[in-house]
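Table S5 (text form). Sequence records supplied for joint modeling of the two-component complex.
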Amino acid sequence: MTSVLKISDLHVSVGETPILNGVNMEIRQGEVHALMGPNGSGKSTLAYALAGHPNYNVTAGSIEIDGVNVTAMEADERARLGMFLAFQYPVVIPGVKVADFLRHAVSNVRNPERKEGEGLIGMREFRKEIRERMTELGMDHEFARRYLNDGFSGGEKKRMEILQLAMLQPRFAILDETDSGLDSDAVRVVSEGLAKLAGPLMGVLIITHHKRLLEFNPPQFTHVMLGGRIVEIGDAALAHDLHANGYATVRARHPEAENTKAEAAAVAS
Amino acid sequence: MSTDAPVKPDAKKSDVEFGSYKYGFHDSMDNYAFKSRKGLDPQIVRQISEMKGEPEWMTNFRLDSLAIFESRPMPNWGGDMSDLNFQDIFYYMKAANEQETSWDDVPEDIRRTYDRLGIPEAEKKYLSGVKAQYDSEVVYGSLQEDLAKQGVIFTDTDSALRDHPELFREYFATIIPPGDNKFAALNSAVWSGGSFIYIPKGVKIEFPLQAYFRINSQNMGQFERTLIIVDEGASVHYVEGCTAPTYSSNSLHSAVVEIVVKRGARCRYTTIQNWSSNVYNLVTKRAMAYGDSLMEWIDGNLGSKLTMKYPAIWLMEPGARGETLSIAFAGPGQHQDAGAKMVHCAPNTSSRIISKSISRGGGRSSYRGLVKIHKNAKNCRSNVVCDALILDPASRSDTYPYIEVEEQDVAIEHEASVSKIGEEQLFYLMSRGLTEAEASAMIVTGFIEPLVKELPMEYAVEMNRLIELQMEGSVG
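The corresponding structure-token record, covering 745 residues in total, follows.
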């Protein structure tokens, strides 16, 4: 059965400020979706809300995975149902080795029934696997022994996100500007890495301002977000057009979305 | 905090003639089952000394120390000791070879923790006070023999007084005289057990010496007294304590640890203590480091009701280095007042203090430290880093750094940081499938990792397990 991530009329507030104003989207395993839109349109908010950040309050609507409503679930429960967010700004966890962290994460995600304190995935098996994945992503095996994102360059952090994606094999991966702030070599590594990993078992939502990631991972669907709503849906050609020409024409076509944004700003101030 | 110059020990050596003891040491104590009555007075102190068959100078030393203890006021800083009643304590208990208490008397939560830490049965019983002896002679006998061949003395302090009287008396109470502070005086009056170690010139012990090796003495008593002498060019790593909670029906633990690190020698002293939460843990530890030597304290404090402990290093001659790594974990109802002291008495000496504390569930941790640079101690360097991690709004952390500098030509750095477990860190880990408790434990484990990696392997593993256990049920 093909899994489906279904977002219905999703309204999300941060504090008292409404950011998303009724987002609808359906992502199936095996599909690649692009989410585009100008800064402040709500793209990252959608990403965080899907992953279950506690500060992003769903005020209406729902998020479902295969008909299971996950809207009220904690981030870890969602992860165990196959949700994954590659962070725009990965967080530094001093003193925690990449291998220790990932072994724990993999154990929980692959065995969702695992109770705290129960055994982890076998060390040997895990080591072999993480080494293979690092080799495929062109990463030094030394990475596994470093502290998570501690002292990592921008490119290393993003590679670490892709390594986690590779190890956790989620059903739904959201990439929040994973290609931002990288030089072109790093963008290529990330793009190729994702292209290798995404397959028939992974639904991908790519949030990006750049062409490169989408060139390696051509989207079947392009969603354009404006003022906390999806205002247009197209195919890869729409993504190309927006890259080439910007958002002026989209804005002109959807003045009402801009108004919503202005209202939100007024509420916030 | 006491910053006085070292003074001569109060005991007068000339009072005693070795070999003419009133009570022969050959009288085996093993047949005794003895418990002093509750409380503290000269009669009890005399009785303790008599039961141990000590030489007269030690009896006098104890009595003098008691007078000092009684004349000193309670410290008016540190933690709250208002319900500590010195007259409600047994100061000396000597078990015969039978069990003192029943396993059934050990609190359920402590037994469960032992099980989950995988502590061996024999050790469990020792730690919980069910068994007064933990016989490791069989396992470590050959090791002891090997050490003895190199001239190393590794014994309990009572035996050392009997078997190595001259060496003992040369150093005993020279680093921490009874007049140092009220609790050092108390320990000097009623001490029992502890470790005595002498490493001869140039002898380097490659493996850590552990108190476990000879734990069948009264090593982990309430008032143990440890004395370590590392002779010129020698080196040793001594490890004591255990990460498992040490159950004690007695409410006061007051130890004294004295160390001499001679020219070119190295000494590392690692302690992990986890007292049950009824215990006042008031310990005085000090080392004197001579020319080009290195002294390191690694000090882990968990549990207890109140811990006040500031391992000190006196850098006595040029080139001496001192380093203290301190971890404190304050849980519900606990106050860890811990830190370090570095006293630079000579030029070209250097010191480093790294302190990490964690407060959770209303616990309170304080860093209290002193860096003192005496006049003419030119070109000294000192670096202090203290990091505190606070896990919830009910918990607390304070920093009391004291710096006293009498010399211009020095470099002192002090950095302090306080962090809360970040929402973003928690979310990041949880978004990878870790529960909130697992994520918190991982962040805490990472926080103390720089210190844990300095511990011997089995301690490091236990320490991490213990942090996980402490964190369970702490959230949500």
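Note: Residues 154-168 of chain A form the longest helix (15 residues).
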